[in-house]
């Protein structure tokens, strides 16, 4: 006989029907829109750079620094940072690691830098010291270190909140009493620790010890600071400044008060390494327990609540049973008295034998964070249940209550994604038999992939509703290992249909990135290729497809523009480059700025280049810094500013742009705009050469050729020029030919070959010397007018005396011959309606204006030189070499 009143049966039935109905509505909505929120921005994106330097070659070794970095990197990955890690990095490795970090940082919300290793302060600035540094020369600091201030500026340009953590205040590693920094000679005697930086708005700077003091490496596997930071950073729902207070206390305890961590903040918002979810739901809204009619002790069998990790939960029964009491460990559970929620399954309903009414026992689960959930237990005394049954029959309000007796086959999904293209939705799930149900917890997350639901990032332990699976999106790390990444979502409640979900992340570098990225591009995802190394046909197809597939990703448009330029499709290239610039790709702006400087594919207008270079330089783009620095030195398109120009060149060199080292070396060697310093020039050129830069080889070769600072060694100089020439250096061929002449070689054909090679690459001197040879020996000319074109290129390339002499040669020629060659060049460039008659009339001038896209020069020599320069640009020379 069933003692459940009709009203109670109806209430339970309605509750069950409503629960199922609401779930079906949710699933139907998601099935109708499987890409729901696919384009929604993800909040709280985080990127971290972690560097640990232990194995110094020339400075005291630091046993724990690499251990510190590995441990902190693991902690930050658990806090959902995309971590770029560098261990025992030399200067080139440091540059590359910083660049990789900046590539992950684009448009992020939070940027963090942690450094453990040697660092020094000079002139109130702090410098990271890579493991190959010696600091033995007064000139070493600027070529062997990396300025922390620069990195903070770059972080600030691409993120809303910046955190610097410097565990780098070990013993003073200086080998010298003073160092050169920019235009200053800095005395560093007696300096120790790091200088206190003043953070700009939105920054937090953390030191492992007080400014101007020294930190300890520690006797264990981690430094005292790293150990404390790793222990405290993942404390849930602790604001970062509270975390740092905990770290400070722990470090002081470990060091007996000898080391006191320090921080300086200008934060305007709160930041949490771990913001714990605050989800609280019941696995069963109503539990129906059926027992024999004479049962006297009934286990309630309430499923534990489903809650986010870290919550403290309590359970409270609102009223006492009508015909009995509730016991926990044989103690009566009083109405309104909270008990630990994890004990709710141990509660027993005790009553006397005999016929009893149905008991409906409402209860409430509350969390220490303010959430609550209501449930109820219905105890039904049923004569049809055998009196000998030890275990009550439990009927849940959903279908997930029966126990699993066999292994569960997980739902397996694969997300295919190109790195650097944002978050990718998981494939649409079949919402039928065997679908995941209930709640899932993030059980495993490979650190090389981030997972988000809608616009929120998830960390290990976070909860996801099964019906929200279509909102799950995956983002692979930009710089990741080849190991397959996996994300596992495991059912919170074991039930027949509660299947885990295993998401495999199949991420690859897009072919356009491999084939057409530009070197040192901080918004690329690969190291890049030089212009002459672009496989044009393959890259055209790959980048065209990438632009079509990812129209919102500006770097693909820039890379496509590079390929189109290399092909000679200037209108198409400009369209792509400008669209990339509009999308925020700063290297595209630099590319366009160089075209304005050189008048290549656009009108010659150096002023238009300056704001493009400025924007790139602010973001930490070394190409932008180098080009802006040179423009400021030369006053090209902007008022000359030597001091700022040198500062920008130093920043570019610091980031690995060897051209900047060479420009700095040239400034110090010749002393035209800064005090002459031959030794400093030598250090710059040698550093560049050791990095494999052909400009460094040429500049260092000239010092050996001339016996400047080093013993004269013509053979060594010639070998260096030859190596650079084979690598397409624009001036090396000319330098070789001039050395051959000086050595008495008279083979004009051999000399012409070298001068021509340089001329084709844009060397005005090479063009002038080649023109002189073919003028003197017409039999060596490629055609009767080659000398004119070479003289014209020499004028156009503005090569000082070579250009002046070339202009004089052209001015002395018969005007008709010059104009005839001008007209022939216009015809080769596709100009229509040009008569090759040697007369510079309106038709020829109109054709020249059409070709140049601007008003042509009035002087015939200038006009001829400009048209020759335009034809030279059409041959797509290496503009980055000039």
TrEMBL record:
Entry-linked InterPro entries: Caspase-like_dom_sf, Caspase-related_regulators, Pept_C14_caspase, Pept_C14_p20, Sel1-like, TPR-like_helical_dom_sf
Residue intervals of the Caspase family p20 domain: 44-121
GO MF entry, a single one: cysteine-type endopeptidase activity
GO terms (BP aspect): proteolysis
Gene3D superfamilies to which the protein is assigned, alphabetical: 3.40.50.1460, Tetratricopeptide repeat domain
Protein name: Caspase family p20 domain-containing protein
């Amino acid at each position: 006989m069933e003692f459940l009143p009709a009203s109670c049966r109806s209430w339970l039935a309605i509750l069950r029907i409503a629960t199922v109905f609401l779930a079906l509505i949710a699933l139907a909505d998601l099935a109708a829109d499987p890409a729901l929120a696919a384009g929604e921005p993800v909040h709280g994106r985080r990127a971290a750079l972690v560097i640990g330097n232990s194995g110094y070659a020339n400075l005291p070794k630091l046993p724990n620094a690499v251990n510190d970095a590995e441990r902190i990197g693991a902690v930050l990955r658990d806090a959902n940072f995309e971590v770029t890690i560098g261990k025992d990095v030399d200067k080139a490795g440091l540059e590359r690691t910083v660049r990789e970090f900046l590539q992950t940082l684009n448009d992020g919300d939070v940027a963090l830098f942690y450094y453990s290793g040697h660092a020094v302060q000079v002139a109130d600035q702090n410098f990271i010291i890579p493991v190959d540094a010696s600091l033995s020369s007064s000139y070493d600091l600027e070529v062997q270190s990396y300025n922390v201030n620069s990195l903070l500026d770059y972080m600030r340009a691409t993120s809303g909140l910046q955190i610097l953590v410097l565990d780098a205040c070990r013993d003073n590693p200086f080998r010298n009493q003073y160092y050169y920094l920019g235009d200053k000679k800095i005395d560093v005697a007696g300096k120790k620790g790091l200088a206190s930086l003043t953070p700009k708005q939105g920054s937090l700077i953390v030191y492992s010890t007080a400014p101007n003091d020294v930190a300890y490496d520690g006797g264990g596997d981690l430094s005292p600071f790293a150990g404390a930071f790793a222990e405290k950073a993942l404390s849930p729902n602790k604001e970062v400044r509270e975390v740092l207070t905990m770290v400070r206390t722990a470090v002081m305890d470990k060091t007996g008060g000898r080391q006191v961590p320090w921080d300086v903040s200008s934060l305007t918002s709160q930041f949490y390494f771990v913001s714990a979810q605050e989800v609280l739901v019941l696995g069963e809204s109503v539990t129906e327990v059926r027992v024999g009619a004479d049962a006297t002790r009934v286990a309630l069998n309430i499923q534990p609540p489903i809650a986010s990790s870290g919550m403290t939960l309590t359970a409270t029964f609102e009223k006492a049973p009508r015909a009995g009491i509730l016991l926990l460990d044989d103690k009566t559970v009083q109405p309104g008295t909270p008990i630990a929620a994890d004990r709710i399954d141990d509660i027993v309903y005790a009553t006397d034998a005999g016929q009893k009414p149905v008991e409906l026992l409402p209860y409430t689960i509350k969390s220490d964070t303010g959430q609550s959930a209501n449930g109820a237990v219905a105890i039904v005394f049923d004569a049809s249940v055998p009196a000998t049954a030890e275990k009550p029959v439990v009927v849940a309000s959903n279908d997930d209550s029966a126990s699993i007796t066999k292994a569960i086959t997980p739902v397996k999904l694969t997300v295919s994604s190109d790195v650097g293209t944002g978050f990718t939705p998981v494939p649409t799930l079949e919402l039928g038999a065997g679908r995941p149900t209930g709640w899932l917890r993030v059980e495993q997350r490979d650190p090389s992939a981030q997972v988000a639901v809608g616009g929120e990032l998830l960390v290990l332990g976070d909860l996801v509703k099964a019906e929200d699976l279509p909102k799950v999106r995956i983002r692979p790390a930009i710089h990741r290992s080849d190991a397959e990444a996996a994300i596992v979502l495991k059912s919170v409640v074991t039930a027949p249909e509660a299947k885990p979900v295993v998401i495999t992340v199949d991420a690859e570098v897009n072919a356009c990135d491999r084939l057409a990225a530009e070197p040192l591009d901080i918004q690329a995802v690969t190291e890049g290729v030089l212009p002459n190394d672009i496989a044009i046909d393959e890259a055209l197809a790959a980048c065209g497809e990438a632009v079509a597939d990812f129209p919102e990703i500006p770097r693909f448009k820039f890379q496509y523009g590079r390929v189109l330029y290399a092909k000679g499709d200037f209108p198409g290239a400009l369209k792509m480059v400008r669209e990339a610039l509009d999308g925020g790709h700063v290297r595209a702006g630099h590319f366009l700025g160089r075209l304005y400087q050189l008048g290549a594919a656009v009108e010659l207008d150096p002023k238009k280049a300056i704001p493009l270079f400025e924007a790139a330089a602010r973001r930490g783009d070394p190409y932008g810094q180098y080009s802006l620095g040179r423009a400021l030195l030369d006053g090209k398109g902007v008022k000359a500013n030597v001091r700022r120009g040198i500062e920008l060149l130093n920043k570019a060199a610091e980031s690995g742009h060897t051209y900047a080292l060479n420009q700095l070396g040239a400034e110090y060697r010749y002393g035209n705009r800064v005090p002459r310093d031959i030794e400093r020039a030598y250090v710059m050129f040698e550093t560049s050469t050791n990095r494999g830069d052909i400009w460094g080889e040429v500049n260092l070769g000239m010092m050996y050729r001339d016996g400047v600072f080093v013993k004269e060694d013509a053979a060594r100089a010639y070998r260096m020029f030859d190596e650079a020439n084979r690598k397409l250096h624009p001036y090396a061929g000319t330098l070789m030919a001039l050395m051959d002449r000086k050595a008495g070689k008279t083979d004009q054909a051999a000399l012409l070959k070298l001068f021509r090679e340089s001329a084709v690459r844009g060397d005005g001197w090479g063009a002038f010397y080649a023109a002189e040879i073919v003028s003197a020996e017409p039999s060596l000319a490629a055609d009767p007018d080659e000398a004119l074109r070479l003289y014209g290129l020499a004028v156009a390339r503005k090569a000082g005396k070579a250009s002046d002499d070339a202009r004089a040669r052209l001015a002395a020629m018969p005007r008709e011959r010059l104009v005839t060659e001008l007209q022939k060049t216009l015809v080769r460039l596709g100009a229509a309606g040009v008569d090759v008659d040697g007369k510079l009339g309106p038709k020829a001038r109109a054709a020249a204006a059409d070709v140049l896209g601007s008003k042509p020069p009035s002087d015939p020599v200038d006009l001829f030189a400009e048209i020759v320069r335009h034809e030279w640009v059409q041959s797509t020379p290496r503009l980055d070499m000039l």
